Amino acid sequence: MAARKDARPCSIADTLALVGEKYSLLVLREVCLGNGRFDQLVRNIGAPRDILATRLRRLLDAGILTKEVYSERPQRFEYRPTRAGLELEPVLMTLMAWGDRHLRPDDDRPMVIEHSCGQELVPRIVCQACGEQVRHEDLRAHPQSPGWTVTGPTAA
Hints:
Blueprint: H1 11-19, H2 24-32, H3 38-45, H4 49-61, E1 65-72, E2 75-81, H5 83-87, H6 89-102, E3 148-149, E4 152-153
Antiparallel strand pairs: 1-2, 3-4
Helix pairs in contact: 2-3
């Protein structure tokens, strides 16, 4: 699922091509929760087995997951996040928080994540340099791809 050849070069598009397919982020959710066995993934995600197997192969090939044998006879594997997979966990937490705020207005959240400090996690994005919370109005984009500006491609 490659982006159109003339589309803006974009790391978001590249990432979505890898993890934006239905069930991919749900696989990562379950694996980060410690549910990495195939039958657990099928049950907790609700994905058809063949599609789940395809998503797992893709995530393995991309280095987002790894698999380890937990049974020799029959041979069975448990999937675990790699460092790259764990780096996507804040994305999951931010998506969950957005869904809790905008899709579940009656506060009927299906899960709460507790931080090691004992308090409920409320994810925030902060600037690494100054520590300030990131707000839309404080951002400025600087396209780095030749031939592109913020508004689109430059004239040929």
